[in-house]
Design goal:
Number of strands: 10
CATH topology of the largest domain: Aminoglycoside 3'-phosphotransferase, Chain: A, domain 2
Strand order of the largest sheet: 1-2-3-5-4
CATH architecture of the largest domain: Alpha-Beta Complex
Radius of gyration: 20 Å
CATH superfamily of the largest domain: Aminoglycoside phosphotransferase (APH), C-terminal lobe
Order of helices and strands: HEEEHEEEHHHEEEEHHHHH
Shape: globular
Number of domains: 2
Number of helices: 10
Structural class: alpha+beta
Largest sheet: 5 strands, antiparallel
Distance between the termini: 49 Å
Length: 314
């Protein structure tokens, strides 16, 4: 692979696809939306080209792309039915959708997101769809943390102790409990776009982690941020209430939702804290306020075993 050619060649792929769909697109400027080791994304006019994670397999990605194409109204459908190879990376093209504006938190579409997730969880999973990859990604973040030799030992210890309270499935050491629901696998507000842009309905994007598994995982990140004090209670209440109203299956219709969300929230807190520590180490800086909040939450979790962990031990 030639890493320094991936970005320009991906931009050329986006441009060629955009011009094939709309020869007079009127916008010949490429915009890099993401350029990370696990994903590179470029936009040209109304087309977005994405290089998927290096560990993506063609068969699993095709199954995920096929599922997205068959679920209009829930997931953004790809423009390309099968991935192409570009410098050893699997590449797909998608229509552009307008994302959530991070500068306008009051306009965050919590209710719409909750309704989409509830519908996704109620939808029968297509035959042959791989397992949801959320626990695998969390485990990889913790594995990278273990090798961060220069990271603050107290912070690392807090995260690892919290991680050890989780059941094997949440650490990707065992299959997820059956029966599994159709799950997004990596939900956060950045996984929503309006399509057609700019004012079409909200849709879920990013199928890299789509699969069968524990639906509570998709609620785990908002739950974690709420538990850490990073998501205001009214926003969490809006999200949870809308999810229940839409018939979501991850939590009971009424009562305490936390027995179903405790393990996913803990796992995603540990993942976020692990990423925060390795990112701060790479940047040669101390943890910022939010990152320290995540580590502190791990420290608290380590001293209070998860309810579901205790149940599995019986």
């Amino acid at each position: 692979m030639t890493p320094n050619r991936l970005l320009p060649d991906l931009a050329a792929r986006a441009e060629a696809t955009a011009h094939s769909l709309a020869p007079d697109c009127g916008a010949c400027t490429d915009v890099t939306l993401a350029d990370r080791p696990d994903a590179t994304v470029v936009r040209h006019a109304g087309t977005v080209a994405k290089a998927h994670p290096p560990d993506s397999t063609p068969a699993d990605l095709v199954r995920r792309l096929t599922a997205a194409a068959r679920l209009p109204g829930l997931l953004l459908a790809p423009l390309t039915p099968a991935p192409a190879d570009l410098h050893g990376r699997l590449v797909t093209c998608w229509p552009y959708g307008r994302p959530v504006d991070p500068a306008d938190p009051d306009a965050a579409p919590w209710e719409e997101a909750a309704a989409l997730l509830a519908s996704l969880h109620r939808t029968p999973a297509p035959a042959g769809l791989p397992a949801m990859r959320g626990p695998v990604k969390a485990a990889r973040a913790v594995t990278r943390l273990r090798s961060a030799s220069a990271a603050p030992r107290a912070a690392v210890t807090a995260v690892l102790r919290a991680w050890d309270t989780l059941p094997p499935w949440a650490r990707a050491e065992a299959p997820q409990p059956a029966p599994g629901a159709l799950c997004h696998g990596d939900f956060h507000l950045g996984q929503l776009v309006r399509h057609p842009a700019p004012d079409g309905p909200w849709l879920l994007i990013d199928v890299d982690d789509l699969g069968t598994g524990v639906p509570g995982w998709d609620l785990g990140r908002p739950a974690a941020w709420y538990a850490c004090g990073l998501l205001p209670p009214d926003e969490w209440s809006r999200f949870l209430t809308a999810y229940r109203a839409a018939g979501g299956t991850a939590v009971p219709d009424a009562g305490d939702p936390w027995p179903a969300l405790d393990v996913p929230a803990r796992a995603l807190t540990a993942q976020a804290a692990a990423r925060a520590i390795t990112k701060a180490q790479a940047g040669g800086r101390p943890l910022d306020e939010v990152e320290q909040c995540l580590v502190d939450a791990c420290d608290r979790m380590a001293s209070v075993p998860a309810e579901l962990v205790r149940e599995e031990a019986k």
